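Translate structure to sequence.
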């Protein structure tokens, strides 16, 4: 893994003949939208099948979609199947396991408070992914990128503040609420996942980003399905069967999960993970629409300021290009 070293924000010397340098922006926006839909589907699954089964649904039911994408992309590329190696699989395994843990923590966080704040807690990953990218990949952010990440993270903090002073005191007295703990853990695991998938892309510099996205998601979700599916089959087969009974929601979660993951992986094959995950905070705006239109949740004044700071960070991360 140590061999995958670049200086941020230089792009890897990849063969990307049909993708402009800015292509990661619409790809990331699409991935964030798909992830918002996936989160909404998973939230309804949690109440029916439990947290772990809902987590499995995005991986297991996403496998067929990932397989179809890989088959089509590989055929259209006109190239042989990439020569994967141990280093690549090591990075993918790191990203896959971390993503599995992050998803479970995210679902737990969303159970503690309203939908948008549960998602927002996980977005502490932005600063963490910059830290982990510097440590593992030697990708150091520019000053503009760092300021954009800081503004966006501050916005997330404002989104996460308790609604009442009494609640804030309770959090302080207790050290941290369960939502805070699950959110921070989710952010850390998502950050490690992003670094793992970015590292996998850097380990295969001669493969086109869309192929890396498809293959990466296929390998990762296969491993995730085996690990979590095996655990549930042995420990909670009833929950596993429930995902099959509510197959419509499970397929929606799987399809949107595969689409989102393919987008994240492809974008991170083009651009450093910290940039991609910062722009991915647009998911907070998408989640706001979901919480207002579907779950009928109201937004506080402090949360509006938080969203404004997140928007400032998104603009900043795009302006550095």
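Result:
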């Amino acid at each position: 893994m140590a061999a995958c070293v670049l200086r941020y924000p230089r792009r890897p010397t990849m063969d990307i003949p049909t993708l402009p340098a800015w292509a990661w922006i619409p790809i990331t926006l699409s991935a964030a939208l798909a992830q918002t839909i996936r989160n909404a589907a998973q939230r309804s699954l949690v109440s029916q099948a439990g947290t772990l089964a809902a987590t499995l649904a995005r991986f297991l039911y996403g496998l067929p979609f990932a397989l179809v994408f890989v088959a089509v992309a590989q055929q259209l590329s006109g190239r042989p199947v990439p020569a994967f190696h141990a280093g690549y699989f090591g990075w993918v395994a790191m990203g896959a396991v971390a993503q599995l843990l992050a998803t479970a923590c995210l679902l737990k966080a969303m159970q503690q408070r309203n939908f948008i704040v549960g998602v927002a807690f996980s977005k502490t990953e932005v600063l963490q992914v910059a830290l982990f990218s510097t440590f593992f990949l030697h990708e150091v952010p520019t000053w503009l990128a760092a300021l954009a990440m800081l503004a966006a993270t501050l916005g997330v903090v404002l989104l996460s503040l308790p609604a009442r002073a009494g609640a804030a005191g309770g959090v302080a007295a207790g050290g941290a609420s369960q939502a805070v703990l699950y959110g921070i853990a989710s952010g850390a695991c998502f950050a490690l996942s992003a670094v793992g998938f970015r590292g996998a892309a850097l380990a295969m510099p001669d493969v086109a980003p869309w192929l890396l996205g498809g293959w990466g998601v296929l390998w990762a979700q296969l491993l995730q399905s085996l690990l979590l599916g095996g655990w549930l089959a042995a420990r909670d087969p009833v929950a596993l069967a429930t995902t099959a009974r509510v197959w419509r929601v499970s397929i929606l979660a799987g399809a949107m999960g595969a689409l989102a993951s393919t987008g994240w992986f492809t974008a991170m094959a083009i651009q450093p993970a910290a940039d991609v995950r910062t722009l991915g905070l647009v998911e907070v705006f998408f989640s706001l629409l979901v919480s207002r239109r579907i779950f009928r949740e109201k937004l506080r004044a402090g949360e509006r300021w938080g969203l404004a700071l997140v928007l400032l960070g998104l603009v900043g991360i795009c302006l550095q290009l």
